[in-house]
Design brief:
The structure is a single chain. With about 280 residues, the chain is α/β, with parallel strands linked by helices. It contains nine helices and ten strands. The protein has one domain: TIM Barrel, CATH 3.20.20.30. Strand 5 and strand 6 form a beta hairpin.
């Protein structure tokens, strides 16, 4: 399967790109998100001392924007890449995701992860060092809210008396894809997810991650196979043959160099590989 990453196209084109993606036969579109971007970020915390995003980058509520995409499409799957569930109370996250699944008719693919920007967590007043445990607990609570009639919880980060949560998502088992490549993240995917999602890989570079994921799945004694989703490097040159041989289930592509070329890049890709 091939999906479209909206990360490499201007927001003003997202709706048009999503509509064209559905028309051309792409399976899904995926959006990234942040709550806030602090002005003071230490570039030494990041690879090669370079910040991967500018503080003045426009941000949107991913669930609201994907609802707008849902209103203008009919079959396109709607993915988050990734949703920082741990920065939110589970009531907030679960409600937003369930609402999107309802208004889209059951098309949500929820990618979640612990996040990578300590300054964002500090600005939100949430402890960055405990983000893995916080995400684990938030996922557990959300899953119960989506699937159980009454939920009561007492945990490390969240506690509440018995509550009802309606409506439930349309999908009986809403697909959660866990991001990250550390052993902790991969174990979280095996333990709590329907899938794993990775960013900016080639077929060659993702191979050891897939091998480790298979190893951890075997060690956990589960027969459930995770769906794997990986973003290819952006640009018109996509190693489609390599990806098809890689064992990855879904590849997210942005087959264009500049936003103005996005539609034609998608059409060219579809003519060559989707027909």
């Amino acid at each position: 399967m091939f999906g479209i990453s909206l990360l490499r196209v201007a927001p003003r084109q997202w709706i048009e790109v999503a509509q064209e993606a559905e028309r051309l036969g792409f399976e899904s579109v995926w959006m990234s998100e942040h709550l806030v971007l602090p002005i003071d970020m230490d570039p030494s915390n990041y690879p090669e001392g370079k910040l991967p995003i500018r503080p003045d980058t426009p941000l949107f509520d991913v669930m609201v924007y994907l609802a707008a995409v849902a209103a203008t499409t009919t079959t396109l799957r709607l993915g988050t890449f990734i949703y920082q569930l741990g920065l939110r109370h589970p009531f907030i996250g679960a409600r937003a995701v369930a609402t999107l699944d309802v208004v889209s008719g059951g098309r949500v693919e929820l990618g979640v992860g612990v996040g990578w920007m300590p300054e964002e967590w500090a600005a939100a007043g949430v402890e960055f060092s405990g983000r893995g445990r916080r995400l684990d607990e938030a996922l557990e609570v959300c899953r119960r809210l989506w699937e159980e009639p009454v939920v009561e919880h007492r945990g490390e980060f969240f506690a509440f008396p018995p509550v009802a949560f309606e409506p439930k998502p349309v999908q009986k088992r809403l697909p959660v894809h866990v991001g990250g490549e550390s052993d902790a993240a991969l174990r979280r995917a095996v333990r709590s997810g329907e899938g794993w999602v990775g960013m900016h890989h080639t077929p060659q570079s993702v191979a050891p991650v897939l091998a480790r994921l298979e190893e951890l799945t075997g060690a956990a004694g589960t027969e459930r196979r995770l769906t794997t989703t990986v973003a290819a490097p952006p640009g018109p040159l996509v190693d489609v043959a390599g990806w098809r041989a890689s064992g990855v289930d879904r590849v997210l592509v942005a087959p264009w160099q500049r936003s103005r070329d996005a539609l034609e890049g998608m059409r060219r890709f579809a003519r060559e590989y989707l027909t």
